[in-house]
Design goal:
There is one protein chain. Helix 1 packs parallel to helix 2 and helix 6 packs parallel to helix 7. The protein starts with a strand and ends in a 17-residue tail after the last helix. It is of the alpha/beta class. It is globular and about 45 Å long. The chain contains 9 helices and 12 strands.
Length: about 240
């Protein structure tokens, strides 16, 4: 299973959110590029950069797009960039940068013409993230608003052309208590595309369990920063967890 360290950027700093809430975060570093290099030095061969500031304010913006692009160029490993993108212009800007994948948050774009255009034009370079809280994805688009079942939503996104998904359980995010195996299992039964998991991963058993279920990759944040989980010596040359 591919291991992808998370670099969440808020106010120019690397932070870790608690249950996906930007108001509940811990500071880790004021140098995102140095953090990226540390992960690469211990064997990571893919990184996930999340622009937390892009989710605040009314205007569409990705404040840390350039920083993320610099990391992608300098770290010399594939980078996935996630942000609150629901605009064609911003998506074009992100896709012009050297990212392997650009992650879109399904709750902000499901049912919109933007999503249909994005998948039709750029589907191979996109991944759709399902942020699940209390068992549901809280959709907040003009076309649809309210709680959505993540399994039904995953099926819908794949039917519309999504090539890969991220399953993120926000209740478990930053809590180190383990992933939501039941939720992932249900989603994998219908997704039929590669699925990356995020939330609650704290040790090797969690990773091995996710691999047995069929997840393609794991995004890991807090456990790496606190030292609960170490990558050194546990990854192969491609950045996969050694069994």
């Amino acid at each position: 299973m591919l291991i992808i360290p998370a670099i969440n950027i808020l106010g120019g700093n690397v932070v870790r959110l608690r249950q996906g809430d930007p108001t509940r975060h811990a500071f880790y570093s004021d140098d995102p590029l140095a953090v990226a290099h540390r992960f690469v030095d211990v064997g990571a061969r893919s990184l996930y950069i999340h622009d937390i500031d892009s989710f605040s304010g009314e205007r569409e913006a990705t404040p840390h797009l350039d920083m993320a692009a610099r990391i992608a160029s300098d770290a010399s490993v594939p980078v996935r960039f996630g942000a609150a993108i629901s605009d064609d212009g911003l998506l074009t800007e992100a896709l012009e940068r050297p990212f392997a994948l650009v992650e879109l948050h399904a709750d902000r774009i499901v049912g919109t013409p933007f999503l249909r255009r994005a998948l039709a034009r750029h589907g191979e370079r996109l991944t759709l993230r399902l942020d699940v809280r209390d068992g549901y994805v809280q959709v907040r688009t003009p076309e649809r608003r309210g709680p959505a079942d993540p399994v039904a939503l995953a099926r819908e996104l794949v039917e519309q052309g999504a090539r890969r998904l991220v399953y993120s359980d926000l209740n478990r995010d930053g809590m180190l208590g383990g992933p939501n195996y039941a939720g992932l299992r249900a989603l994998l039964q219908v997704a039929e595309v590669p699925v990356t998991v995020s939330g609650g991963i704290a040790h090797g058993d969690h990773i091995r369990n996710l691999e047995r279920l069929g997840a393609e990759a794991a995004i890991i944040g807090k456990a790496l920063y606190t030292g609960d989980l170490s990558l050194r010596g546990h990854l192969d040359d491609q950045g996969h967890w050694r069994r």
